[in-house]
Amino acid sequence: MLSHYSAAYSNRQQLREFGMKMWTLSCATPVSYPANSVSVSMPSVKAPSSSQISFQHSESPFVPEVVKAVDSLYSEFRAVDNLVACNTSRVLKAFQNARLGSHHFSGSTGYGHDEAGGREALDQAFAEIVGAESAIVRSQFFSGTHAITCALFAFLRPGDELLAVAGAPYDTLEEVIGKRDSNGLGSLKDFGVEYREVPLAEDGGLDWDCLMHALKPHTKCALIQRSCGYSWRQSLSVNEIGRAIKMIKMQNPNCLVMVDNCYGEFVESIEPPSVGADLIAGSLIKNPGGTIAPCGGYVAGKKKWVEAAAARLSAPGLGIDCGSTPGDVMRAYFQGLFLSPQMVGEAIKGTFLIAEVMASKGYQVQPLPRATRHDTVQAVQLGSRELLLAFCEAVQRSSPVASYTKPVAGSTPGYASEVIFADGTFIDGSTSELSCDGPLREPFAVYCQGGTHWTQWGLVLGEVLKHI
Q1: Cα separation of 366 and 369, whole Å?
Q2: Gap between the Cα atoms of 360 and 418, Å rounded
Q3: Which of 59-63, 78-82, 291-295, 391-395 is predicted with the least confidence, judged by mean pLDDT?
Q4: Parallel, antiparallel, or unpaired: how do β-strands 419-422 and 445-449 relate?
Q5: Angle at Cα 312 formed by Cα 279 and Cα 116, nearest 5°?
Q6: Which of 48, 75, 247, 434 has the highest count of CB atoms within 10 angstroms of its CB?
Q7: Which band of pLDDT confidence, cut at 50, 70 and 90, is reported for residue 38?
Q8: Is the dihedral of CA 76, 92, 135, 110 positive or negative?
Q9: What is each CA distance from 42 to 15, 53, 54, 59, in whole angstroms?
Q10: What CA dihedral angle connects 415, 453, 92 and 431, to 10 degrees?
Q11: Which helix (H) or strand (E) holds 81?
């Protein structure tokens, strides 16, 4: 028996040494990005010739415009990979600090009182990741708009004023605020909350001169929308958000700052709570869900205000220690959050590729090609209803789900204009997966986002260029 174990041990040692040699060889090979040809190693005893292991240019799955763009984006893609490593590191550290274990995936039913600690661990990890005191991450948030609404109602009371400092907010918030009539269904305006906007500057950024004197004594909340939404403007960096918060607090220290963080998570190495935001809110079927969270949203920030937002989600007195989440959903939340830096990185690469290709064809793009990204949205100004419809139809045809359907523009709850959506996604409405949409109004811009790998957009653009 002893000799048998000795032989087995010896075999394992040999395998381990062989594996270490192979690992050393693989790590010695530098990472490269796709060029006009891609070398592929084949498992063969006899080394094949280069003609056997290379895809020739004519065999590339991409159209020439995409091949040219990819070749030119090496530096940008590499910088994104460094960002992914940085953000993955902070997610990993937060999971370790929360002592995440498989028992946290068990979920709960009913009131959720017998929850095995997953809800608390998820809240703790999420708060650490975004630099906040506290967080609630819940399946009971229907959407990002719902989470943002809970945060706004946490801050505001009759007679207070809400000030939007980055121009008009996203369409779905108009009825929440009362900018568009909610038909008495309980907008902030219905509850006696006043509203003003600080228009954007001519260059599409924040109007710093106007913001310097914008607050009034009864301005209780300043709303900052990080992403461009359906506006043709620059998205805001975390540093710009920090600068705006300083200006706001200097004028009125009691004014609370709420950041709509949708599409911004993991695009930079820090989040708005690290620069003074009192609350942030967003959706789990966008960036932080990593393409696999099936639903939900989050609110994070100062503990007092997170609890107030939780009371709007549920009811005063219930607190944050309630609400059931099935076990498969809880596991998807943790796994999606862990994957999200990588998924966001691929989405960012997709925006670089879209901008590079579409600008080369003469279309206006926002952000500009190779400009620093502050969200995962790439806008392309198409100029006509027909081209906007054609673009979205091409994206739908290139989707993994419902590719056989034709997207049709129409009215959608929460939107003032007709909107068209191309979203052949596994999660309904997921914009962390490859998708695009746009309102049927001037300047007929399409807003592209998501994608589990940049090559998805490379393939989609080939289809798009055939039809516009």
Answers
A1: 8
A2: 29
A3: 59-63
A4: unpaired
A5: 85
A6: 434
A7: very low
A8: positive
A9: 21, 7, 10, 18
A10: 10
A11: helix 74-97
* Distance between CA atoms of residues 395 and 462, nearest Å: 10
Q: What is the pLDDT of residues 347-384, one digit of tens each?
A: 999 999 999 999 999 999 999 999 999 999 999 999 99
Residue 189: strand, helix, or coil: helix
Looking at the DSSP assignment, which residues form a beta bridge with residue 379? 366, 447
Angle between helices 74-97 and 327-360 (to 10 degrees): 160
Sole residue written with tokens 């630099």: 131
Residue 113: per-residue pLDDT: 84
**52 C-beta neighbours (distance < 10 Å), count:** 10
Look up tokens 């998805």; give the residue.
456
Mean pLDDT of the chain: 89
Amino acid making up residue 210:
C
User: Between 42 and 71, where is the model more confident?
Assistant: 71
Query: What was the pLDDT predicted at 319?
Result: 82
Q: How far is CA 228 from CA 74, 231, 392, in A?
A: 26, 6, 19
pLDDT for 58 equals: 57
Q: What are residue 445's DSSP bridge partners?
A: 381
Cα–Cα distance for residue pair 75/345, rounded to 1 Å: 14
Tokens 């068209």, residue? 420
pTM for the whole thing? Answer: 0.87
Nearest residue to 320 (alpha-carbon basis) of 89, 78, 135 = 135
pLDDT-derived band at 292 (thresholds 50, 70, 90) equals: very high
- Name the token pair of 153: 């109602």
Question: Which is nearest to 171 in space by CA: 347, 421, 433?
Answer: 421
* E strand or H helix at 444: none
For the record, the structure tokens of 221 come out as 């909340």
Place of tokens 């809880």: 330
Phi, psi (deg, nearest 5) at residue 379: -100, 140
The CA distance from 139 to 295, in Å, is 6
What does DSSP assign to residue 151? H
> Would you say 260 and 282 are in contact if contact means Cβ atoms under 8 Å apart?
yes
Which strand ranges, in their side-by-side order, compose the sheet holding 256-260? 134-138, 297-301, 279-283, 256-260, 219-225, 161-164, 194-197
